[in-house]
## 1
Amino acid sequence: MIGVVFALSLLLFFWLRALPGGVVSALLGERATPATRAALTEAFGLDKPVYVQYLKFLQRASRGEFGVSTAVLPGQDAFHIFLVRLPATIELSICAMAIAIVFAIPLGYLAAKRHGSTFDNGTIVLSLIGVAVPVFFLAFLFKYWFAVQTHTFPVSGRQDSALGCTRVTGFFVFDGLLTREFDCSADALRHLVLPSIVLATIPFAVIFRITRASVLEVLDEDYVRTAESKGLTMQTIRARHVMRNALLPVITTIGLQTGGLLAGAVLTETVFNFGGLGSTLYQSFNGRDYAVLQVLILAAAAIYVIVNLLVDISYAVIDPRVRTR
């Protein structure tokens, strides 16, 4: 984990300094003059050797000091912006992944059990559509059908500001439960429905295909046929022999998809104006906000490796053979 994050910090450091204009131009904008550029270059230590700049970058990053935003929220601390907008993306990602897992794993198992049937072929087509349809296009369709046309769900945002809900943790659903403002939790959930479904489409499709393939492989194993010949119930065979062995590649896929949700969240949050890290990443790229970009990219890498570490640990919980090795 430490090695991956360190390598990415090195790449990030050189990549940001290789972009046209650089940090100084982003901060000064049209007001840049040779004198102001030279002064700011000296103030940021950009005139020093590269290795000195990188060591100072690591020191500041370890303290959460990435500078101030120049485009997203000008003048505000970049790390503070990250902390404020992180809960929105976590809420959205948890809901999206929950939807994907709840539907993908059972459907993948049923499709494998009914291999070659109409149900199997239909679910495969559904998963292909989930991968093939662009996220932003699906987001606009859902927004038009369910928000603009039928008014079933809100058009955008995380919560109706007219409710005057109390903010405690930044997780709007949890805050409503914590303060017993249940109408606020319900409203936050209504705002989560459409973006969560849209964001869940690709993870659903991938997890479904992996589950189906993994279950098909396990069903052909000798120990499953042996269990059937012993007269064990299908429920016991499914829980003890099939799903437990089939879940290892599925869990790996879930970890990879969870870590990669930020990529889909960029488009989803932008369309629904959700105000999380995805839309922040878009704004920072668009406005060349280097301070916020540094935070978001390093945070995304850290989240990704932590999720995959948890996946590796979960192997030992599910499969005793991993603990033995």
## 2
Amino acid sequence: MSATGETPKPADAAVVVGETTSVGRSGPFRLRRLASWEALLALVLLGLVGLGAATSPKVFLTPGNFSNLTAAVMEVAIMALPMTLIIIVGDIDLSVESMLGLASAVLGFLWAEGVPLEVGIPVVLLMGAAGGLFNGLLVARGGLPSLVVTLGTLALFRGLALVVLGPRGISKFPEAFTDFGFGTVPGTPIPWPLVVFTVIAVVLGVVLHRTWIGRQVFAAGKNKDAARYSGVRVQRMRIALFVLSGTIAAFAGVILTARFASARADAGQGMTLTVVTIVLLGGVSINGGRGTILGVVLAAFTLAVLGNVLRLANVSAELQSIATGLLLILSVVIPSVARQVSSAIGRARRDRRPPVATAEPGEVQSLI
């Protein structure tokens, strides 16, 4: 102890540790920002746009093609937005495609029975909310795995759609309704469903990344028990997210009915795989606790442009399906490998860090 009554501090060691901490938090952080998953997706999207422009310049770069490729992916892209929140919180909803088909079937049945669309559409949305509530109660209150529950309702909702409408299709919808499905904003090549998708993406993006609700979603996805002990109403949140997913899936069914000007019970078959692919390709962790709406938006357009480029190149539907499956696998494998590499680098950096200098007992005695 010195004459001033203070214990001397190893200043040099403190400086070294401070510099190491600074480098560890700022340098790699900037590198992660530059090499983020969203930036990588943006580069892939630009590369696909360049490939399409090089292989089919007279078709790919036309406003009509932009409108077509965008409209073709809007239903799955819209359903991927609430799916993002569900997967971040640690659940999954595999029933979205069947809810879309059930919504289309019920809307067509109501229209055939003389019910105006102004009444039929709200009824369909309420039905979607009820289906989501059913899923949420079984998962959150019943304690059942969301994978098993929504796999069951995937078959249940499709069966109900077949009961309601059977194998027939309903058409002859009003022109104003069908124009909403495949029409564009006047004077632009922007489809109306893209406007809907943008509004939902902005709203959910703000909620997820800028509000306390989003912080609670991430907290529950990382550790549900810890979030519950911190005051987060985890079960209520999970139910609300399933209700949101069911409602938006039903709305996607309305859009699909308008786009095809026809209501069918088998509408949307196979869309769940594409929805999950978009979410995981967007960088959302299948284990929960991590993801961004921006990444999902970029993934949706990446998948749309990829499909369009393959179709313009006359690639068969089978090969397109293979490409979608490979994307799904890569979207899970690449982030996992990246996390393992990052952890290994972090451990190696900590192992190389110089030890903090400490005073021996004899040295302390000599200072007294």
